[in-house]
Hints:
Largest sheet: 5 strands, mixed
Number of strands: 34
Amino acid sequence: MSDLSELLKALTTSVETDDLTYVYYYSDSGEIFKISGVIDEVEEGQEILEVLYDIASPILTGEKRTTDFVVIYDTALKRKTLKEKNYQDTFKTASAMCYQIPVIAKSLAGHFSLSEIYEDVKVYIWVKELAYKKDDIVWYNDNVYKLLADNGKDKRWSKKNSKLFIENVFLSDIPTQKFSVLELKFEQQYKGIHVDVWYDDLNHLAGQHVWIGDCVYKILEDQPAHTNFDPKNAEMLVSNVALRNDTNKNLTFTQIIDDGKLYLDFNKIYSAKIIESHYDKSADDIVYHTDERHIIVCKKDFKIHMDTFDKKKFNYLKTDLTLQDQNTLKNGDKVLLGTKLYNVQLNKEFDIIVTQHTNEKFWQLNIHPSTLKYFQTTNYDQDDLLYFSITAKHDPNILYRSLKIPLSMLADKLVIPFKYDAEHKEDLSIYTAKYFDSYGHEIL
């Protein structure tokens, strides 16, 4: 031990004299095999890096080992440099190369913990194209208001007729989790019955069903053309049937659809029912309500305003909505998600979270903002790849799917659609070659 101490002391004294140290390393891996105060010859595949004494002093003084450091190319400095190992260099053990990501229980994808504000309050995004009622709660220009009076369709925003409910509420690009909408479903009634619209100019036969005056009748005896409808020659089948559609487009159709009401649609009778259902959104959609039956769907390159009763009725939204980058949100910020208000808490427990969206059928990789910032400032190798093996529960030998992700893509909101039925299972595991300190497998 005394010989080693004397050697380190002599080496330290030598390099302090000229303030330079020579690091000998393997050119293919950057691994260090010797540090010296003088330049010696090297073999093929070996190189020498000249560094300042202060940089190499932790190794020279014995505080740290040569294996704790590596020589890399710093893209910012445009030269090779001696650097202490971190994420991409540290995890080389067998257990790290086949690391099972633990399942974490959370209610929102990513690194956010959200606490709901005003649980019974439903918030709509105010748009000029719709009408609102007194006491509706609406979001407008980063604030939430309660309306003090009805606000008609195509009317301007009225500060006089609104009261501030809660201020500084952001719309963000946090992915929408569960989102339900009201949809209109039609179920055929009186199956097997064909109903014609009554025309005085046509012949009508006994047993024929006709619609007139919002009622459906069965004709009792043949009735010739050019005669008026005779209630005495008809038996009422059902009343309060609105005309919704017909081949004769010159007729007047009802535009209002009510829950439980009957409609004649192309000669068949249907009942209308308004139901609440899960909105089947695309992986990258962010969705808000503008009222009970209209939604804003924010896609990557555009936003649309849609009627959930009739999805063919939509327009590209004229209102300018800015979605704040979730990575810029701070603890305590307030956000609107769907129709609910939340306080944001940033969860720093995990470097990377792999989220399994079982309903929307996609995987999402989310790196923690502070971890991403660290990588960006340390000039990590963006060509490095991350590997994830999706397997049977606790069994890496039964492979369902492999994911290969370039490290450079983690700066984006990475979404990977499901490919196989097995990916829908909640009882599966994810294994990886451990690259980060902490991982989480999130099932939503």
